[in-house]
Design brief:
- This protein is α+β, with helices and mostly antiparallel strands.
- It folds into two domains: about 120 residues, Jelly Rolls, CATH 2.60.120; about 100 residues, AhpD-like (Up-down Bundle), CATH 1.20.1290.
- Helix content is about 40%, strand content about 20%.
- Strands 1, 3, 4, 7, 8, 9, 10 and 11 form an eight-stranded antiparallel sheet that branches.
- Strand 7 and strand 8 form a beta hairpin.
- Helix 6 packs parallel to helix 8 and helix 8 runs antiparallel to helix 9.
- The N terminus is likely disordered.
Length: about 280
């Protein structure tokens, strides 16, 4: 009897294992699915409108791929209509944007706004507060690729105000290899080494160091030039400060503050230069 019972139990367990192996969703099938190439056909992708909590304007989010453990990367094709943008946010492990169409904008907190166009690839470092979206006159679409940390891929913050969105965009930096270096053009024929040092060391190295944003570097520079009463150099740096996201109100307040430390005549001279620069914009 014991032999018969043992045999019956063995047959039952064998049959149960066979049935589980052939059932959809079984462990064996699940493991096999994880190791199989998956193709999602065109037209089968899920899309939805961007939430009003995290976006301003009309935004469409098409989910390309969700993270599949042990992988932590997901991606989406996001289309912003004119004037639409994300709220301020950050990503614990950073983000890559691949612009697939139109013209848009991106900004890190404290930096100027940069224009982005089809074909551009944007890397946003981990933990950096930023936003991105379309320009006021053109729609923009991009593929966003993010990686989750402990199941979280983004930290959402406050909305981007209209005033923040509509500041002037930064002038694109000129590549040193293009031969159109600003100091070479201004003084290169008379003092070529000074022009070279200015373009390659000051603007090419110091101004590009990530420890300070371009906006903060502009405020430091104009403050020093106001204190030294250097109106000729101040003029070009007011222009640069504006390109780097410093507003007219912020520059006027900086000059007002410095009047008590750098002297009233220096402040009055700086106000005259600032008026000239901002009336030309």
């Amino acid at each position: 009897m014991k032999l018969i019972a043992a045999t019956a139990i063995s047959l039952f367990l064998f049959a149960l294992a066979s049935a589980q192996t052939n059932q959809p969703g079984s462990f064996a099938t699940s493991v096999q699915d994880q190791q199989t190439i998956k193709i999602t056909r065109s037209g089968m992708l899920r899309s939805e409108q961007g939430s009003a909590e995290n976006f301003t304007g009309s935004v469409s989010v098409q989910f390309l791929e969700q993270a599949r453990p042990p992988a932590r990367t997901s991606s989406a094709l996001i289309t912003f209509q004119r004037g639409a943008r994300t709220a301020w946010h950050s990503h614990p492990l950073g983000q890559v944007l691949i612009v697939t169409g139109g013209t848009g904008r991106v900004q890190r907190w404290g930096d100027a706004v940069d224009e982005i166009k089809q074909g551009d690839i944007v890397w946003i470092p981990p933990g950096q507060k930023h936003w991105h979206g379309a320009s006021p006159t053109s729609a923009m679409s991009h593929i966003a690729i993010v990686e989750a940390l402990d199941g979280k891929s983004a930290d959402w913050m406050e909305k981007v105000s209209d005033a923040q969105y509509r500041v002037s965009i930064r002038t694109r930096a000129v590549s040193p290899s293009s031969g159109e270096r600003p100091s070479q053009k201004a003084i290169g024929d008379f003092a070529p080494k000074l022009a070279e040092l200015t373009d390659e060391v000051l603007y090419g190295d110091v101004w590009e160091r990530p420890q300070l944003s371009k906006r903060d570097r502009s405020l430091v520079t104009v403050s020093a030039l106001i204190a030294l009463n250097r109106p000729d150099q101040l003029r070009s740096h007011f222009v640069k400060a504006r390109e780097n996201g410093v507003t007219q109100a912020e520059l006027i307040e900086t000059i007002t503050h410095l009047a008590f430390y750098a002297g009233w005549p220096n402040a009055v001279t700086a106000i005259g230069v600032a008026r000239e620069v901002f009336e030309k914009k």
